[in-house]
Write a structure and sequence with these properties.
Blueprint (H helix, E strand, L loop, with lengths): L23 H9 L12 H8 L7 E5 L5 H8 L4 E6 L2 H10 L6 E5 L9 E7 L10 H11 E12 L14 H8 L3 E8 L11 E8 L5
Parallel strand pairs: 1-2, 1-4, 2-3, 4-5
Antiparallel strand pairs: 5-7, 6-7
Bound molecules: S-adenosylmethionine.
S-adenosylmethionine binds next to strand 2.
């Protein structure tokens, strides 16, 4: 998965399709062949800055499609006590299990996010949504909401651009994301991300989505 940066505004807005099954085998192959062009090598600044202002250190936090999970290291170092990492690729999980074996605040699971069961205060999003087929975005929204406690939050970044080559990554823009997310979330923030890494500057939105409770 390589990025070829081009701002969304220059390309017609459309949701691309995906014919390749993006399953465990696909992702394991990417990891085994070191095809990890998404990996920025450090914790994503928009996420760490958001978490700097998140006061509940005992909040239960899920990072799905976590990859090398630099954010989890940053969270553990900042005193967060309950972090769950999920990745579908066994090779990624093997790396994580070694990395976090001495850190009891971080739990590592080799699982498919869409089959995961749990209950969290917060889900952190960093290039996982763009890795799933666009046809599963509604399922992502529904599943994320089902994994959150009342008033739970999804926070992180989504691309605000399209990609020339077939995904993943799959791009998009707020006008596509809102109808998918609004049935399950109040969109508290979906705005131009001002602290993206330089390579993604101007091509991400920061999101904060608050789960809608049944009576909302
Ligand atoms: C684009 S990478 C992003 C990794 C990490 N979030 C980052 O930004 O470096 C997507 C990751 O999601 C994992 N993944 C893809 N589909 C998944 C699924 N259904 N459940 C859990 N993990 C999945 C892949 O193995 C891969 O590590």
């Amino acid at each position: 998965m390589e990025e070829n940066i081009k701002p969304a505004k220059e390309i017609t807005c459309c949701v691309s399709q995906c014919d390749v099954p993006l399953d465990k085998d696909y992702w394991e192959k990417q990891w085994k062949q070191n095809q990890t062009g998404w990996d920025i090598g450090y914790a994503s600044p928009p996420l760490t800055e958001y978490m700097n202002s998140y006061s509940d250190k005992d909040a239960s936090i899920l990072i799905p499609g976590c990859g090398n999970a630099y954010e989890a290291e940053a969270l553990a170092n900042a005193g967060f006590t309950d972090i769950t990492l999920i990745d579908i690729a066994p090779s990624a999980v093997e790396i994580l299990q070694k990395k976090f074996e001495a850190i009891s605040s971080v739990k590592v699971l080799c699982e498919d996010f869409f089959r995961h069961e749990g209950e969290y205060d917060l889900i952190l999003e960093q290039t996982f949504f763009c890795a799933i087929p666009p046809s599963r975005r509604m399922e992502y929204a529904e599943k994320s909401a089902s994994l959150l406690k009342n008033d739970g939050i999804v926070a992180g970044v989504l691309f605000d651009r399209t990609f020339e080559q077939e995904g993943p990554p799959f791009g998009g823009c707020p006008c596509e994301y809102k109808p998918v997310l609004e049935p399950h979330f109040h969109i508290s923030k979906m705005e131009e991300c001002r602290n993206s890494i330089p390579q993604r500057a101007g091509s991400e939105v920061f999101i904060e989505l608050i789960k809608k409770n049944r009576l909302d």
